[in-house]
Amino acid sequence: MPLIHEPTKQEAIPGGFAQYSKKGENVIFSVIGLSPSLKNRGQLLEILRSVLDLTRLRPGCMGCWLSEEEFLNNHVLYAEQWATEEALRDHIRSDLYLRLLSAIELSRRPPEVSFYYATETRGFDLVETVRQQLDRK
Question: Which pTM does this prediction carry?
Fold first, then answer.
């Protein structure tokens, strides 16, 4: 899956995301799947790239990603990660989000929009636990 956005050094630091979310709060992932026409694909990607760069600077934004995962099917995936629902709601009310909505309008099919609320975060301890269970068998 070609990734257009490469993580910054801050994002690559182990535990880097933990600094943003508070214990007991949900981390929220916004995932939008789009299917632009070949004619509108370039314009849609240009808008999403500009939104991505500016969204990453917003308070509470933990990351943004843009993927052209299914090039043959002309499918584009845009995702954001938010530390709190309040930060996500502020973003949705912003003028910047209007640009995201204008990109959505360039999709030839209705967008696939999902908001995932992560109530639990596990680290490498999950890998260790599962691997230890495997060793016991």
Answer: 0.76
